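Thread amino acids onto this structure.
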């Protein structure tokens, strides 16, 4: 058990571990896309959007590592990632694909995860260091 986990409430430790695990899953998906398709895995999306999603291979993993180490910057980075990722995916669904959230279960799951991260961040953050 890492030092900060001994002193934090159990709910905070479980929340951090859950968020970190889901960020690692996201990083793995983005790494798989990078290995399989390069920096532009989605032909239908503009270059800047492809680069943003590709960058999440690094940023998701970094946020997870900071969180597990008990660093507040992990929560801050996770919040920034989730806010921008939901906005980017919402734009892709509505602005590019001309679809809606009911037809996109991936966006639904992402929105729930974003709500979890953003909703728990202030309470988790006070139990982390640095």
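Threaded sequence (130 positions):
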């Amino acid at each position: 058990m890492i030092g900060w986990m001994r002193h934090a409430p159990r709910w905070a430790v479980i929340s951090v571990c859950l968020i970190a695990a889901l960020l690692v899953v996201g990083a793995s998906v983005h790494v798989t896309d990078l290995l399989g398709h390069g920096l532009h895995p989605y032909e239908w999306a503009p270059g800047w959007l492809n680069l943003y999603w590709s960058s999440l291979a690094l940023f998701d993993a970094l946020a997870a590592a900071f969180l597990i180490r008990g660093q507040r910057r992990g929560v801050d980075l996770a919040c920034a990632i989730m806010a921008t990722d939901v906005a980017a995916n919402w734009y892709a669904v509505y602005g590019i694909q001309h679809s809606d959230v009911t037809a996109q279960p991936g966006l639904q799951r992402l929105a729930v995860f974003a709500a979890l991260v953003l909703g728990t961040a202030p309470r988790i953050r006070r139990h982390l260091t640095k």
